[in-house]
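Researcher: Here's a chain I'd like modeled. Treat it as a single chain, no partners, no ligands.
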Amino acid sequence: MGSVLRFAGQLAAYVVFMGVVGYLSASPSYTHLAEDKALIKMSFSHAGDPVAECRRLTPAEIAALPPNMRRPTDCPRERVPLLLRVDLDGQRLLEETLEPTGLWGDGPSSIYRRVPVTAGRHELGFKLRDSRRTDGFDYEAQRAVTLAPGQNFVVDFKPGLGGFLFR
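Model: Modeled as a single isolated chain. Structure tokens:
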């Protein structure tokens, strides 16, 4: 009799557990994005220019270095931060300074942003500065896009392919 009660108790516990799992697999409902919205995703890593030019060491400076550290030039490792500006229909959507990664600030600057926007036709403008200049931008791209509801519009950056890539 004890084993029958134990089996019935286990069966009841399993049924309750399966019911809870079944309920949570479909409820509460989750809406990833409102029906009238589209998503602009910016995701890239890019290293800016070094903070200063390499400089040639004098023979006295080279001689003062330990033998295993002697080199003709001194080049800083640190990179400049990137300045990213995104405009949507003539309005500033995002302006961000992306600091370089790495222990000495010598790695690439990275961004991953998801920006929900109203679906429809938009004028997008992307600008990026990756040099030591103090005004203006090194890369600029304008694009007229028509975003469908629920669409993921991805913006990447590859300087070897001309700058901003739209997918």
